[in-house]
Sequence to fold (387 residues):
Amino acid sequence: MTVNVDYINIAINDVATSITSKGMIGYNQTGQAQGIGFTYQNGPTLLYEMGLMIGANGTQVSDNVRSDGATYDSDFQSSQTVVGTEPGIHSDFDAIGMFRDNGSTSAAPMDLFVTHHAYAWTNTGDRNYIMVTYTIRNGGASALNGLYAGIFSDWDIPAFADNKCSVDNARKMGYAWSTDAGGFYAGVRVLSSNGGFNQYAIDNVTGGGGGADLSDGFSNAEKYQTMSTFRSDAGNTAVAGNDVIDVVSTGPFNLNAGDSVSVAFALLAGQDLSSLQDGGDNAQIRYNNIILGTELPLHSSVYELSPVNPNPASGQLSLTFAIPTAGQTSLEIYSVDGRLVKQVLNEKLSEGKYTSMTNISNLENGAYFIRFNSGSFSKTDPFVVAH
Fold:
């Protein structure tokens, strides 16, 4: 029996996967253990391995995917177990977790603090993807230059030897598909616009088919190479295809000490390329209008509380809310075990929009809740503190 489970299954639409507390997706352990993989319409898993990779300075990479020889890296370690809310604040299922790269044994960690969100919707048009976002903070004393963040995907759709991989540059999407009759498509699209788009398609065969050769392992140098250089296609070493891996990334970013950057991806599956493209387009609309579109109107006809900004928070926390009628209004911060840890506001306010700033530098790292009360209205939102 597994206790203190540090992953969560999201299976509310046509795509189902497991989101972990340490940057792995699909499975919480190597060898396809602890998790449901990545499935489409309740079919078999289309995935052998998936995970976040972050690289900087040309040589440093943190991840929990395969490494040299038959080993796996374990750089990311959970600092806040992933939790889910159904329905969520932004979607029909929201998940949030936090991890650091303090597990590195092969090289010095970059002192990264990563807050991870996942979102899923059930309505038509949004059923074939799950959105993941990562806020990456440089917690070290030195700048991280040339930083890339990417999703490593070893697709097996579902017969791994009959797969091909290509790219849709206009949509910032890398994808793979099965050449078998009735085979599905799967892919990853970059949704954030603050960095460039890169894809590196890997032939997972001896010799690498002219590209990166992973038959002898996946070194940090090769990982950074696949996040920072472009290769459009894989699967052409045989007519029916071969085993393929895709790395879809965004960057480069330059992060000074204490700075953060947020990146977002859509994890997609579909019957064909057209359905994959449609899902990616809808994911882009959701990201632009819902995840980024958090500003409240100057005056509101309903009670509103804008999502916590920034999230994760450190130092000063900004809380924006609107009330349609005058009334006693309070903002309170609670720990995950229900303790009141800070009274931000408690006074009678007139109708309108307000922004309240509060210092949270004395709060320990971890998950908290902000509770907004005005008149008979009450709302509670989660957020993370990461100093």
The chain has a mean pLDDT of 90. The helical segments are 220-228, 273-291.
